[in-house]
Design brief:
Layout lengths: L2 H11 L1 H7 L4 H18 L1 H4 L3 H18 L10 H6 L8 H9 L2 H4 L7 H23 L5 H18 L1 H6 L7 H6 L4 H5 L4 H24 L8 H4 L5 H6 L14 H14 L2
């Protein structure tokens, strides 16, 4: 799959990450698009199947496929994304890619987040890890606290925007123990019920997302090498402002032109 094909895929599946990646030089851009396409493949598995066993089998296939890329005699399985990922094995640590896959097993088994720490651990292992891997591919550097803030700001915002779907698969972005205190349950949310309890349950999550977004910006201008990797996080605050009052409703979108303008300004100023 060419870089153009990967870009077209991500235009639908990860448009904001794609927009930011376009500010990278051609070689680094191709690397980022390959990484994001891989992330898309493993992240969409929970959405693509209602059977947990099938989802687990697909994730196991990807776990084995990545392991094959790092074997003593590397083997590239026939798949557009594995073929795009293969040239990056000298840059990306195998353990990091495998843990990115392992974190997604929780999605397909529909296990609710036990508490706020469990939810943050999930975001750190997915969203923040993807940023860290992207920086490895571009040679960019950011302090670890800023990477953590970026990952949490973007990851939690994305989960809140996808609340209705996440609730349906039993993975609503709330702390399970707090939801229980409120008199709610994952099963109730899965049926689209209890909007008042859902609204109350997401408040601590939203507060952390907002704090993380502010912390990310307060860290100062982004180095030019980091903009293509993490620039999209600058959109998190505007998405948080557009979250609906009822978590089960679809959030308002921000126009493509506005997003392009925001990222263009970021690429010029680092802010």
């Amino acid at each position: 799959m060419s870089a153009e094909d990967l870009s077209e895929l991500l235009q639908r599946a990860g448009p904001d990450r794609r927009l930011a990646a376009l500010f990278a030089p051609a070689e680094a851009r191709a690397r980022l698009l390959a990484l994001y396409a891989f992330n898309h493949e493993i992240a969409r598995i929970a959405d693509a199947t209602s059977e947990s066993l099938i989802g687990e089998m697909k994730l196991t296939w990807w776990h084995d496929a990545v392991s094959d890329l790092y074997g003593a005699t590397p083997k590239v399985r026939r798949h557009d994304v594995t073929e795009a990922l293969a040239p990056l094995t000298g840059l990306l640590p195998q353990a990091e890619l495998l843990d990115l896959i392992d974190a997604r097993f929780d999605d397909v088994t529909a296990a609710p987040h036990a508490d706020l720490d469990a939810l943050l651990d999930y975001v750190d292992r997915t969203s923040a890890r993807l940023i860290r891997l992207g920086l490895t591919l571009t040679g960019g550097e950011l302090p670890e606290p800023q990477i953590r803030d970026a990952g949490r700001a973007w990851g939690l915002t994305g989960l809140l925007r996808a609340f209705a779907w996440r609730a349906r698969i039993g993975r609503a972005p709330v702390a399970g123990d707090y939801l229980t205190e409120l008199g709610g349950s994952p099963a109730m949310l899965a049926q689209g019920l209890g909007s008042d309890k859902a609204k109350a349950a997401i408040q601590p999550v939203r507060a952390i997302a907002e704090d993380a977004a502010r912390g990310f910006r307060a860290a100062g201008p982004l180095p030019v090498e980091a903009v293509p990797v993490v620039g999209y996080v600058a959109l998190a605050q505007s998405y948080l402002k557009r979250l609906p009052d009822n978590p089960f409703e679809a959030p308002a979108e921000r126009s493509l032109l506005a997003r392009q303008a925001r990222l263009s300004w970021l690429s010029l100023t680092g802010r």
